[in-house]
Amino acid sequence: MRDEARPDAAAGLARLEAMKIRAIMLTGDNRRTAEAVANGLGVEVRAELLPQDKQRIVKELQSEGLVVAKVGDGINDAPALAAADIGIAMGGGADVALETADAAVLHGRVQDVPDMIDLSRGA
């Protein structure tokens, strides 16, 4: 069995990169699988993480002065979603992720994340 990126992930990540937004994949998946997906997308990855590891990484990035958005869809993402400056739940995810997040992408499209950022910057 092999995990695959969402169909629009490459295009969504390219838009984020064009917006000068750094994307890092934080996952509990095994390193080999995560690296295969990340390499296909050209994104930095940190794998085999527990929920508290994801939360710690969010806080470390914030301590560097970065504004951190965390996108997630599972219960394992909830602590990091809560710690992030902006927590974004992907639609169809765990209820706890949806309840913890500041915003939700209802149809689970990665392309909706840069759209959401564009809208918020225009507000």
From TrEMBL:
SUPFAM superfamilies: HAD-like (SSF56784)
InterPro entries (alphabetical): HAD-like_sf, HAD_sf, P_typ_ATPase
GO annotation, cellular component aspect: membrane
Stretch forming the signal peptide: none
Gene3D superfamilies: HAD superfamily/HAD-like
A GO molecular-function annotation: copper ion binding
Biological processes annotated in GO: copper ion homeostasis
Alphabetical UniProt keywords: Translocase
NCBIfam families per the UniProt record, alphabetical: ATPase_P-type
Entry protein name: HAD family hydrolase
Taxonomic lineage from the root: Eukaryota, Metazoa, Ecdysozoa, Nematoda, Chromadorea
